[in-house]
């Protein structure tokens, strides 16, 4: 059994990381009071612009690692840029945030494939190679933990974990974090205290765009190596993780890891004899069913930001 | 009236944006749009195909719009379509009944399956206040994987693992007289079902107590409760009807437009339903016209792609942009108000001009 876990672990982490960073982005948006179901579309945008810029830069720059990091940067910028559409609609125009998010999902998937098809002819963009996994020196020699956490890891994994750590700090220990959270709980009070609610919400949505864009590009540089016009529902899964994780950074980490592990088990179940006895359909639907059950359990004590999804009306009390 | 104007302006803006995109990739927008229209409406066969493309969209649009009237957001139409289509396919492949009865049972099976699939999110919403957006998304993926394993396991196609066995022509919603009338198009009886559904739903919403209560719950849940309405029951009922509509939409798609069910795909029509409902201002008749418009865009795009360099994804892009404009209709309404105010200013300079506030 242990050897199975050891085998699965690296794959589970590879699957978890894009989900984690995207859900973390959703956390910033929702904590500021804006529902963001556009995460899926923003991930697609990130995957597209990451793949496209790596594809082009590979011919110009010799340093492949640098190219990959620049590709991630491009994805972050593109995600931010695109999320402005959502921010503008939901903050300035009081649009229904769920409809605006849906529209952005539709635009993102359609537009990226439209452009990709025009560029490559097939609608897919392939990159020559992504990051290669490596052992962390010294730490990978530690028994048990070394094998699980420090063997065959990607540099991006550590990067995302660092972002998680910093985000936690920002959210709970800085003035910006306090303001962000207050805008999601009681924006009228926040405004009375002199906070520019709209500006704070803009930064929440922009951060979610940046993180989701990064999440989308991470799929390209670690798992797939090819943009195909979709992230297969990972954005929605990130949204579910956010709720499952009760809008807290560590909760989100736990929830995304749960999804990562459950999905990996389902994916490899056929080649592992101990797991092959379970019907694959059960393994595949397991995470979704558990999420539904978890939602029922948490429904009594939901930690959802109180003003999330409401349009901001400064006259309301 | 005002909704119609906003929808029309959104459509125009979306088409203009599509034209700009065509210019951007170096194509001629006028040429592109004329090929698109030709592809959708040039001859009877193409018109038939356009109507067939619109048929599932009428159902999913009605489904989303109906839930919306109760203040519910059904993102789960895709999953409900899948299970509806699976139920109908299973009936067609299992039972040996005479055609009229078989078709009736197939439609009923799809209706019930879709309704049951939507019942779970409805129940969770009513009893535990679980947000239906997340629960319907989860149900979509559960449906996706269920189809993924049930179809190859029990109804495997003769040549492909990835799709169900093809239905015999007589076990589908295709009808010889329709196919002939439209010169070999794949238009089918689903269109009639869609028209009937539009009429029934319009009747329920506008003329019945149930419709009134559903709308009341949608406007203000707490006021409705205070007025003695059974809010929870209405939420579940609304989801049931919404799911039933999407389920029949699945029947129309998988046993009418197509004659098999493919695995590994969530039907895009489910998400397009949101767009159709929004553009149709959540009214059944509006939904019908919005679905036909999307049908034109989707079915004309192949011909346009064959005749020009423009990729077929243009249709999706235009639709998505239309929806963004429809979602941000406040912007359009503000412009309209400004325009109106200016006009009345000119006509009557002495009178006070009252501008409508937003809240």
From TrEMBL, chain A:
Parts of the chain that traverse the membrane: 9-28, 34-54, 66-89, 95-116, 156-172, 202-221, 227-245, 252-272, 278-298
Gene Ontology MF term list: transmembrane transporter activity
Gene Ontology CC entries for this record: plasma membrane
Membrane topology summary: Multi-pass membrane protein
Primary subcellular site in the record, as a coarse category: membrane
Keyword Cell membrane part of the UniProt annotation: yes
InterPro entries the UniProt entry points to: ABC_transp_permease
Pfam families recorded: BPD_transp_2
Sorted UniProt keywords: Cell membrane, Membrane, Transmembrane, Transmembrane helix
Keyword Transport: no
Localization per record: Cell membrane
Listed name of the protein: ABC transporter permease
Source organism phylogeny: Bacteria, Bacillati, Bacillota, Bacilli, Bacillales
Automatic annotation (TrEMBL), chain B:
Membrane topology: Multi-pass membrane protein
Highest taxon of the lineage: Bacteria
Compartments, record wording: Cell membrane
Molecular function as annotated in GO: transmembrane transporter activity
One cellular-component annotation, GO: plasma membrane
TM ranges: 5-27, 47-68, 75-95, 101-120, 132-151, 186-205, 235-255, 261-280, 287-308, 314-336
InterPro entries: ABC_transp_permease
Pfam families found in the cross-reference section: BPD_transp_2
Keyword Cytoplasm among UniProt keywords: no
Name under which the protein is recorded: ABC transporter permease
The organism of origin for this protein: Mesobacillus boroniphilus
């Amino acid at each position: 059994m242990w050897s199975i876990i050891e085998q699965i672990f690296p794959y589970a982490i590879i699957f978890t990381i894009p989900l984690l960073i995207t859900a973390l982005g959703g956390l910033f948006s929702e904590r500021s009071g804006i529902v963001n179901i556009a995460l899926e579309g923003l991930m697609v945008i990130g995957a597209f612009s990451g793949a496209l810029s790596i594809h082009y830069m590979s011919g110009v720059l010799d340093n492949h690692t640098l190219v990959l990091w620049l590709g991630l940067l491009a994805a972050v910028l593109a995600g931010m840029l695109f999320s402005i559409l959502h921010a503008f609609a939901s903050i300035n125009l009081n649009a229904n945030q769920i409809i605006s998010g849906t529209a952005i999902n539709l635009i993102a998937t359609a537009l990226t494939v439209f452009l990709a098809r025009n560029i490559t002819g097939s609608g897919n963009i392939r990159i020559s190679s992504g990051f290669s996994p490596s052992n962390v020196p010294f730490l990978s020699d530690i028994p048990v933990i070394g094998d699980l956490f420090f063997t065959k890891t990607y540099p991006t994994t550590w990067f995302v974990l660092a972002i998680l750590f910093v985000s936690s700090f920002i959210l709970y220990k800085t003035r910006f974090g306090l303001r962000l959270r207050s805008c999601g709980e009681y924006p009228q009070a926040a405004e009375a205290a002199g906070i520019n609610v709209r500006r704070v919400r803009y930064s929440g949505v922009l951060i979610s765009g940046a993180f989701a864009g990064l999440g989308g590009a991470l799929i390209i540089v670690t798992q797939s190596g090819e943009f195909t016009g979709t992230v297969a529902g990972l954005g929605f899964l990130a949204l579910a993780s956010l709720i499952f994780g009760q809008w807290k950074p560590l909760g989100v980490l736990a929830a995304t890891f749960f999804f990562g592990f459950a999905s990996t088990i389902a994916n490899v179940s056929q080649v592992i004899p101990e797991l092959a006895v379970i019907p694959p359909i059960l393994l595949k639907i397991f995470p979704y069913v558990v999420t539904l059950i978890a939602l029922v359990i948490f429904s009594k004590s939901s930690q959802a930001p109180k003003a999330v999804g409401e349009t901001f009306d400064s006259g309301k009390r | 009236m005002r909704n119609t104007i906003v929808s029309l302006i959104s459509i125009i803006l979306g088409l203009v944006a599509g034209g700009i995109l065509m210019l951007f990739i170096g194509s001629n927008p006028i040429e592109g749009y004329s090929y698109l229209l030709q592809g959708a409406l040039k001859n009877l066969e193409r018109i038939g195909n356009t109507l067939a493309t619109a048929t599932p969209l009428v159902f999913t649009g009605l489904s989303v719009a109906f839930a919306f009237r109760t203040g519910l957001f059904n993102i789960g139409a895709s999953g409900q379509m899948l299970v509806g289509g699976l139920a109908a396919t299973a009936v067609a492949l299992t039972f040996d009944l005479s055609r009229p009865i078989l078709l009736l049972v197939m439609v009923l099976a799809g209706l019930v399956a879709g309704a049951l699939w939507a019942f779970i999110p409805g129940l969770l919403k009513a009893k535990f206040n679980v947000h239906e957006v997340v629960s319907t998304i989860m149900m979509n993926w559960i449906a996706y994987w269920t189809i993924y394993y049930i179809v190859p396991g029990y109804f495997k196609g003769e040549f492909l693992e990835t799709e169900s066995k093809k239905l015999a022509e007589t076990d589908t919603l295709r009808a010889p007289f329709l196919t002939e009338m439209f010169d070999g198009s794949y238009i089918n009886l689903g269109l009639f079902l869609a028209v009937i559904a539009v009429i029934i739903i319009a009747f329920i919403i506008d003329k019945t107590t149930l419709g009134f209560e559903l709308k009341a719950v949608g406007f203000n849940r707490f006021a409705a409760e205070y007025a003695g309405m059974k809010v929870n029951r209405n939420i579940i009922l609304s989801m049931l009807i919404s799911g039933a509509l999407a389920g029949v939409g699945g029947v129309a798609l998988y046993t009418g437009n197509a004659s098999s069910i493919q695995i590994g795909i969530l039907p895009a029509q489910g998400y397009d339903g949101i767009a159709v409902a929004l553009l149709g201002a959540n009214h059944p008749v509006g939904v019908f016209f919005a679905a036909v418009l999307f049908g034109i865009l989707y079915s004309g795009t192949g011909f346009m792609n064959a005749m020009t360099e423009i990729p077929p994804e243009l249709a999706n892009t235009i639709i998505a942009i239309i929806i963004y404009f429809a979602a941000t209709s406040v912007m359009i309404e503000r412009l309209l108000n400004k325009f109106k105010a200016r006009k009345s200013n000119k006509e009557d300079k002495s009178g006070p001009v009252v501008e409508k506030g937003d809240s």
